[in-house]
Amino acid sequence: MSKHSSGYDYVPDGSGKKVCESGQFRFAAAGLDHGHIYAMTQGLVSAGAECAWVYDPDRNKVDAFLKRFPNVRVASSADDIFSDPSVILVANAGIPSARADFGIKVLDAGKHFFVDKPPFTTLKQLERAREKAAKTGLKYMPYYAERIHNQAAEKALELVRQGAIGRVIQVLILAPHRLSKDARPYWFFEREKYGGILCDIGSHQFEQFLSFSGSSDGKINFARVANMGNPEYPQLQDFGEASMTTDTGASCYCRVDWFTPNGLPVWGDGRTFITGTEGYIEIRKYIDYSMPDNPCQILYLTNNSSATRRFDCRDMQFPFFGNFILDILNGTENAMTQEHAFKAAELSLKAQIIAEETSNARK
Fold first, then answer.
1. Which residues pair with 124 in a beta bridge?
2. Which of 207, 227, 238, 265 is deepest in the core (most CB within 10 A)?
3. Residue 91: enclosing H or E segment and its boundaries?
4. Which homologous superfamily is 147-318+350-362 in?
5. Residue 139 and residue 111 in contact, taking contact as beta carbons nearer than 8 Å
6. pLDDT for 199-249, tens place per residue?
7. Is the domain defined by 7-144 classed in CATH 1.20.1380.10?
8. Which of 230, 226, 259 is nearest to 241 (CA)?
């Protein structure tokens, strides 16, 4: 398999433009349960941030982190990080159900919080974080990687905002993932810990629904989750789907699953289709079968003003990380607004609740 065969430790290629001076933006990585912490850290470092501390109660995880990011100081506890006034932000990829409580502690310590998705596993956690972020003025920012750390998706957002396809009327996302069950930790298979498939990997898709359609809210029309092929893990939801209508009138649908076959050289054949009143966009995120070398990060645009165009987006940088750093330093909201970040999480949680209520009603 290729170096991109596992989504849980996938660190995208590409770099960001450095937006700050050396030592100006120091952060810590605390909570290393999910491999996304490497991509989160790399994104910040590429934009000029300095990873000053690392902490996890499991020393093996810390040692693995240090192999990728040497010369980072090891904290004996989270308190070492909280008490360091030079640390501006804490990045966390802990067990999903524990992320909210840790995030509240980070904000209470006067630091911004950058957290792996899902940022919450319950609506109650979300409400607590909303209140704390509003009270402190600090950021509680999820890592919605399937857009902010995907070059083709960022290019699509740029084209949509330029009006390349007119008003967006539908966003359709297919998001299969490779299960890699033998490499997953125990909590991955416990519903209370990971939050359900629509809460977890579905949160990426709801963030994209809002972004691509230019919406601020939506209504869940339909949602379903199921265990289709892993009976030995009864709490694992390996298939999920949801439909939503946004406040701009756009129709949205996503399918998320853990059924990427072993024959695929990447961790998932992610596709996004954005239909507008004047054209449409197809994003081929991780593999493009139309090319002999199967490059990733490909976008197709067809509209009323030109023939179909193919964009190879692999040389595009990731603007989110630099903008996020500058937002923290300057008190702006150019990378992602706090309300947008929370709304995407809220909608995915509501879809998860509806799906499970529907499933229970059928039993």
1. none
2. 207
3. strand 87-92
4. Dihydrodipicolinate Reductase; domain 2 (3.30.360.10)
5. no
6. 999 999 999 999 999 999 999 999 999 999 999 999 999 999 999 999 999
7. no
8. 226
